[in-house]
Specification:
Shape of chain A: flat
Order of helices and strands of chain B: HHHHHHH
Strand content of chain A: under 5%
Number of domains of chain A: 2
Number of domains of chain B: 2
Distance between the termini of chain B: 49 Å
Strand content of chain B: under 5%
Structural class of chain A: mainly alpha
Largest interface: A-B, 72 and 72 residues
Order of helices and strands of chain A: HHHH
Number of strands of chain A: 0
Structural class of chain B: mainly alpha
Oligomer: heterodimer
Largest sheet of chain A: none
CATH architecture of the largest domain in chain B: Up-down Bundle
Largest sheet of chain B: none
Helix content of chain A: 55-70%
CATH class of the largest domain in chain B: Mainly Alpha
Chain lengths: 121, 225
């Protein structure tokens, strides 16, 4: 906490270099998820884990959030929690809309069938 | 509750929070520009999350299968097309620029003007490279594949609208960031911040890292889903 009292964010270069390497590794991992065409729950979990780790390191280290005072941290990180409500509501709404469409208009096939690959959604 | 002279709050996180808000003084003990940049980024978070949520809603409610990003964004270098390779390279370009930006902030506070300006210019150059690759991607999709905001040959017609809206807004942020970084780099070179201090480098760094942060989410939700 004490580093934040002056508002002066100066930290050893090695921290940045380590996080930089880590971000490269995590990006490679998330690319490999697609490259090896992992599917289903495994794919989703890996994508979300790598995404959250990357986002966390960028905010915590590169944007210096770890060294800020709690007043600033809470002012920035608490309001986005409202967005979770929006996301949950819209995911319910999306399923409902799809259900209605499938019931009244029927499911359709993709217009072009030359693209094969992952289609199980 | 007011504690008049507490610079360092004793007694943990809650006391610190209450003290910072309870004093009749500024709440955020940082450069005002930094606090404002954080608040701007908070509002930007809401904008991008709204876009991504809208995309999720449209995609989950579509009865027509969603186009396969892995194949659409594949690129072949003479041989077999490599899936999503262009987007992977763009991701690495943006992360590289984030690293050079972090170093620029560090050298700024050490008042090493030459290195700070150089690192800022490198960051801006990577940003330009990213925008250039995005322009290539857009051109390929519009001209060769015939993707439009109202339809495309691969599947759900909403794909185009989501793609152009989300990546376009992000690309706009990157372009704005390149201009901002160049302006600050020239200022650093000219010694514009010798008296004011080098907080400006950290502030534009926050903006740049945020652009990278948004890309992390776009990469996961738009390209990998």
């Amino acid at each position: 906490m004490s580093a934040s009292d002056t508002g002066h964010q100066e930290h050893p270069l090695s921290i940045y270099l380590w996080i930089w390497i880590l971000l490269f590794v995590l990006s490679t991992f998330s690319y490999l998820v697609d490259y090896y065409q992992l599917q289903g729950a495994l794919r989703w979990n890996l994508i979300i884990i790598f995404m959250m780790l990357k986002a966390g390191f960028i905010v915590a280290i590169f944007m210096h959030m770890t060294w800020e005072r709690i007043a600033l941290i809470s002012a920035i990180l608490v309001p986005p929690l409202c967005l979770l409500v929006l996301i949950i509501l819209m995911s319910i709404e999306g399923k409902y809309t799809k259900f209605q469409r499938a019931t009244y208009f029927g499911l359709e096939e993709a217009p072009v069938v030359e693209h094969h690959g992952k289609k199980a959604h | 509750m007011s504690e008049s002279s507490g610079q360092v709050a004793k007694g943990g996180v809650v006391t610190e929070l209450v003290t910072d808000w309870g004093e009749d003084k500024e709440v955020f003990k940082v450069h005002w520009g930094k606090a404002m940049m954080w608040i701007f980024l908070l509002s930007d978070t809401f904008i991008f999350t709204s876009f991504l949520t809208g995309y999720m809603k449209v995609r989950t409610s579509s009865t027509i299968p969603w186009p396969n990003a892995s194949e659409i964004f594949a690129l072949s270098f003479g041989g077999e097309p490599i899936p999503l390779i262009l987007i992977a390279i763009m991701t690495f370009v943006l992360i590289t620029s984030s690293g050079t930006m972090a170093l620029a902030v560090n050298y700024g506070y050490r008042r090493d003007r030459g290195k700070t300006a150089l690192l800022l210019f490198i960051t801006a150059a990577f940003g330009l490279l990213f925008v250039g690759m995005q322009a290539f991607e857009w051109t390929k999709l519009i001209v060769e594949e015939g993707v439009r905001p109202w339809g495309n040959p691969f599947g759900a017609p909403q794909f185009g609208a989501c793609f152009f809206m989300i990546t376009g807004f992000h690309g706009g942020h990157v372009s704005g960031g390149v201009i901002y970084l160049t302006y600050v780099a020239i200022g650093v070179l000219n010694g514009r911040y010798e008296k004011k201090g080098y907080d400006i480098v950290e502030i534009c760094g926050l903006y740049w890292h945020f652009v990278d942060l948004v890309w992390v989410f776009i990469f996961a939700f738009f390209y990998l889903w």
